[in-house]
Amino acid sequence: MSGLVADGSRLASLRQRWAKFSRFCNGVLGADRYERYLQWHRSTGQPGEPMDRRAFWRHEYERQEKNPGSRCC
After folding, report:
1. Which domain of life does the UniProt lineage start with (predicted)?
2. How large is the average pLDDT for residues 24-46?
């Protein structure tokens, strides 16, 4: 019985590490920008509805083209 508990806790630990790694990668790659935008929109009490995902990314790409900053390409 203790073997099952140990396997379960190892699996839970592995899932937690995978979740942390995924959040890290999404942060580095910028994949979580839309979620951060939604969080910002809610927390600051912005008027109106937030942009949908497609409109947000269109806006982001336009902003990046106008203000390239420090990027490789």
Report:
1. Bacteria
2. 88
Encoded tokens for 58? 């269109």
Residue 67 backbone dihedrals phi, psi, to 5 degrees: -130, 80
Percent pLDDT > 90 in the chain is 44
Is there a contact between 57 and 34 (Cβ–Cβ < 8 Å)? Answer: yes
3-state secondary structure of 35: helix
How many whole angstroms separate alpha carbon 59 and alpha carbon 65? 10
3-state secondary structure of 50: coil
The amino acid that residue 54 corresponds to is R
Q: What is the pTM of this model?
A: 0.61
